[in-house]
Amino acid sequence: MLAGTTALSGCILVTDTSRMNADVFVQETAPVFYNPSSPPQPQAQPTQKEQAIPQKRQLYQTQFHQTYGLPISNPVHRVYYASIRDDGHTLPAIPYSRIDARFLRQEVDYQTNEAPGTIVVDTSQHFLYLVQPGGKAIRYGVGLGKEGLAWSGRGTIQWKAKWPRWTPPQEMVERQPNLRKFAAAAGGADPGLNNPLGARALYIFKDGKDTLYRVHGTPDWQSVGKATSSGCVRMLNQDVIDLYERVPASSQIVVI
Fold it and tell me: Model-level pTM greater than 0.85?
């Protein structure tokens, strides 16, 4: 028995009564418990830079375009109105962003009893429609002068011309003597970028007679969508070229 007592004397067993003390237990384990008497200190939040109230941007009215910033102009217009080389003439690009978007070439819904391929000129709205199947039309903006408002009704595109010569009517020559050098007796004005008929002309006849009414191009792009002092139905040169290619001779035209 003495030997057993001697063997255990090298290892002293001491009971730690503090482990039974509730205050000690809470103090040692406090980091893993929420202690309402010591609420956590609020952490400083990163300051945000004050921003101005966002303004509505000039974009297509969809959330996608407002968010990602795509331009309000139709990208296809850049192609429609780019500079082109045509029959030895170089037409400059048209600054289409400076033109009311209503008067730029576009396909629209258009309900009419007119057959596809018919041209309809709405003089009150300054639009020219080329009727398409399925209730659609290609719409172009036009400018109208006094001559353009002088005739209405139904006619036929008797013939078409690329880079036509311009011969002012005798009445116009009498009003503006400076145009006498372009009169019929002088052979008219040469084709070119400054010719009032522009790149193309469509000549309207009724019952086989020339109405003297024309659908034609113009170098004055600012006149499209507006009333002008003279001229018939003016179109942007790039637009009248497009119309010329789509409309065969003997097509019907209605002016309202």
Answer: no
Under DSSP, is residue 188 helix (H, G, I), strand (E, B) or coil? coil
User: Could you give the maximum distance between any two Cα atoms of the chain, in Å?
Assistant: 151
How far apart are alpha carbons 103 and 224 in whole angstroms? 7
CB 154, CB 252: distance < 8 Å? yes
Other residues' Cβ atoms within 10 Å of the Cβ of residue 168: 19
Instruction: Give the pLDDT score at 2.
Output: 43
DSSP H or E stretch at residue 7: helix 2-8
In 111-199, which ranges are E strands?
119-122, 127-132, 136-141, 143-144, 153-162
pLDDT score, position 14: 43
Give dist(CA 214, CA 216) in Å, integer.
6
Q: Is 205 helix (H, G, I), strand (E, B) or coil?
A: strand
Question: And the tokens for 55?
Answer: 């303004």
Record the tokens describing residue 144, joined without a space.
């109208």
120-148 in b/e form (b: 16+ CB < 10 A) is: bbebeebbbbbbeeeebbbbbbbbbbebb
Residues 6+ apart with CB under 8 A from 4: none
